[in-house]
Amino acid sequence: MRHVISLLIENESGALSRVSGLFSARGYNIESLTVAPTEDASMSRMTIVTVGSDEIIEQITKQLNKLVEVVKVVDISEAAHIERELMLIKVRATGKDREEMKRTADIFRARIIDVTDASYVIELTGNQSKLDAFLGAIDSSLILETVRSGICGIGRGDRVLKI
Amino acid sequence: MVLTGAEIVIRSLQEEKAEYVFGYPGGAVLHIYDALFQQENVRHVLVRHEQAAVHAADGYSRSTGKVGVALVTSGPGATNAVTGIATAYCDSIPLVIISGQVPTAAIGQDAFQEVDTVGITRPCVKHNFLVRDARDIASTIKKAFYLARTGRPGPVLVDIPKDVTAAKAEFEYPAEISMRSYNPVVKGHHGQIKKAVQLLLEAKRPMIYTGGGVILADAAEALTKLTRMLGFPITNTLMGLGGYPASDRQYLGMPGMHGTYEANMSMHYCDVLLAVGARFDDRVIGDPNHFASEPRKIIHVDIDPSSISKRVKVDIPIVGDLKEVLEEMIRQLEAGTQRPNAEQLAPWWKQVEEWRSRECMKFKNSDEIIKPQFVVQKLWEVTGGDAFVTSDVGQHQMWASQYYRFDQPRRWLNSGGLGTMGVGLPYAMGAQLANPGRPVACVTGEASIQMNIQELSTCKQFRLPIKICNLNNRYLGMVRQWQQLFHGGRYSESYMDSLPDFSRLAESYGHVGMKIERPGDVEGALREAFARKNDLVFLDFQVDPTENVYPMVQGGKGLTEMILSAEDL
Ligand SMILES: Cc1cc2nc3c(=O)[nH]c(=O)nc-3n(C[C@H](O)[C@H](O)[C@H](O)COP(=O)(O)OP(=O)(O)OC[C@H]3O[C@@H](n4cnc5c(N)ncnc54)[C@H](O)[C@@H]3O)c2cc1C
Ligand SMILES: Cc1ncc(C[n+]2csc(CCOP(=O)(O)OP(=O)(O)O)c2C)c(N)n1
Ligand SMILES: [Mg+2]
């Protein structure tokens, strides 16, 4: 099963390597990992997307909690939550492809944020499947490069991850 | 008061009441050694290899419960220490290791003797720090000791660049420390404990399985009281020996790969298992699927939630400090109306006694050749069961654990988790320094002892009257045993050729050496050795090279599929 784990961690140098080292040392899966400081600069928030059986996910949360610098861990995918990922994609855009690409971007509510006479950079935000769907909808031979941020997640309603 | 970083390091160690620092100097720690030189409270023990420094600090800790301290230089000093650190980590031993680092400005420049010590040790420490400012030294060392000894204990490393030890800062040792990200649970959940006690009272075939946690938590007394109140059979893992008196009738011996028949059968066929500070290691339960094939309810008490339901699914988890939880169980039992019922347990005890009557620890002694088991039996007799016994790794380690009967905690020091050959002598050094005047024996093998034999020199310098019992079988015996049983008798690289004459080697270091070749001389030699109160005596016992450790559960097999003796093969 796919899980989205959010955690607050002391913003110390080396904290990220403790987390990534834990995953590689114990053979856990990381699909994506994002991290940035929170409104309180002494703490960072991390979102980790991982896959594993219930037992493995239980061990992952316990092992993360055990890291001395980790302040709090929640599996936000256990309840209603929102996931968002940012993708920037550079495509070849010449001739009739220009219009077609613009139209597809509009349908996905993507924005074209850089234009040259031969290319676009398109910005798209959404959950993973929306980004995948966009990639599926355009002609793959036109893709010059893509970059995805990995997922950020947050619980819905009054579920709050805070100390 | 304004001090140099190096002085702050030493003052902080004094504040933590560190008696001994085990270490080895080098460029990056010269300032610290200079500060060490100018005081007398913290005594330095100069080892001959940094691995031994960490092991000795570890042995000091295992025998006392206090935090052990080691000090090493950057680069090779730190890498030499890694085996020691990993060994302590795997057995949850509280240590603080201080390592020198190249000057802050040189970090990342491939400087002389630079390694990323924090990076290299990250997976084998409880936590580590790089101190970049002299003003942070005191609080970091305070945190290091606090982290090492609280919660699930473990080694903590503090890496200090050379310029930081030279810089000056105001010294004030913090009285308290609190970390928002680190709050180990101490008190167990009252409701969970209540459920557990109820289940224990209802059990028809109960079993208590305890481990290193009992030793680490100093909970042997509470465990003994609870076990006697309940009247249940009990087993202690290799790490938990001495947690319950081995000479007591309720004690069934060690479980696991080389555990007793009665302990393993009882673990397997019980209906309620109370697991206390033990982590269902693969050397204890064998194949987890086989173990799960028999239904039983499991109560698991541990301070580390990640130890619970890791390899075996648990019915009643209790997170907390063992001492607190066991005492709470005792209180609830005393307060309740229901009493453990001996009658209800009688059929189970009858079964257990039947298993015990197989006498699985019996071995064929000989008049011609020294049996290693016999040496350990005699060691136990001669020391009245009251010695601190360290061991290395191999067959001799198993025989020491099987035939020396530990009635008290912190008397048995060995590397269980990492299984590090070479710990025996440095463990004995740490234990002897911590317990002056007390008997300390190191049961070792001719291969293991050579992994830190240079420490005979340290023992001379610090006058450590350790008794080394070398069970010399001329083989990597444990390896030879597996090759005999599972690799068609192809003894690939397991013969120890070109051995030194150990007794003369010991003599050349200034110690007493003895070579013992006949069974009839074993007891006399041991008595003479222990009578020499001020001498290190190296007893080189020439033992039967073909002897194997039994009983045995082959790796990957179930607990009930035991080989009891050579006749079972
Ligand atoms: C050659 C060889 C053969 C071996 N054969 C055997 C064998 O036959 N039988 C055997 O038993 N072992 C054997 N071992 C050892 C084995 O590898 C493990 O090291 C050992 O079984 C683990 O012991 P433990 O379960 O007691 O856990 P430990 O490693 O001692 O762990 C202690 C547990 O207690 C917890 N704890 C610590 N402090 C507290 C506290 N204050 N409160 C609550 N909980 C706490 C910790 O979180 C941890 O879960 C062998 C090792 C070697 C090298
Ligand atoms: C550092 C290290 N290297 C290798 C091993 C693998 N190993 C386990 S037991 C053993 C043999 C030990 O021989 P010895 O010390 O003579 O003890 P014996 O088994 O003969 O009693 C070896 C090589 C180990 N445990 N530790
Ligand atoms: Mg040997």
Automatic annotation (TrEMBL), chain A:
Pathway listed: Amino-acid biosynthesis; L-valine biosynthesis; L-valine from pyruvate: step 1/4; Amino-acid biosynthesis; L-isoleucine biosynthesis; L-isoleucine from 2-oxobutanoate: step 1/4
Signal peptide bounds: none
Keywords for the protein's UniProt record, in alphabetical order: Amino-acid biosynthesis, Branched-chain amino acid biosynthesis, Transferase
One example GO MF annotation: acetolactate synthase regulator activity
GO cellular component, one term: cytosol
Domain ACT: 4-78
Entry EC no(s): 2.2.1.6
KW Cell wall biogenesis/degradation (keyword) present: no
BP GO terms, sorted: isoleucine biosynthetic process; L-valine biosynthetic process
Catalytic activity: 2 pyruvate + H(+) = (2S)-2-acetolactate + CO2
A family per Pfam: ALS_ss_C
Classification via NCBIfam families: acolac_sm (TIGR00119), PRK11895.1 (NF008864)
UniProt similarity note: Belongs to the acetolactate synthase small subunit family.
Function field: Catalyzes the conversion of 2 pyruvate molecules into acetolactate in the first common step of the biosynthetic pathway of the branched-amino acids such as leucine, isoleucine, and valine.
Assembly and oligomerization: Dimer of large and small chains.
PANTHER family: ACETOLACTATE SYNTHASE SMALL SUBUNIT, ACETOLACTATE SYNTHASE SMALL SUBUNIT 1, CHLOROPLASTIC
Name under which the protein is recorded: Acetolactate synthase small subunit
TrEMBL record, chain B:
Residue intervals of the Thiamine pyrophosphate enzyme central domain: 193-328
The UniProt record lists the keyword Transferase: yes
Domain of life: Bacteria
SUPFAM superfamilies for this protein: DHS-like NAD/FAD-binding domain (SSF52467), Thiamin diphosphate-binding fold (THDP-binding) (SSF52518)
Protein name: Acetolactate synthase
Record-linked InterPro entries: Acetolactate_synth_lsu (IPR012846), AHAS_TPP (IPR039368), DHS-like_NAD/FAD-binding_dom (IPR029035), THDP-binding (IPR029061), Thiamin_PyroP_enz_cen_dom (IPR012000), Thiamin_PyroP_enz_TPP-bd_dom (IPR012001), TPP_enz (IPR045229), TPP_enzyme_TPP-bd (IPR011766)
Alphabetized Pfam families for the sequence: TPP_enzyme_C, TPP_enzyme_M, TPP_enzyme_N
Domain named Thiamine pyrophosphate enzyme N-terminal TPP-binding: residues: 4-119
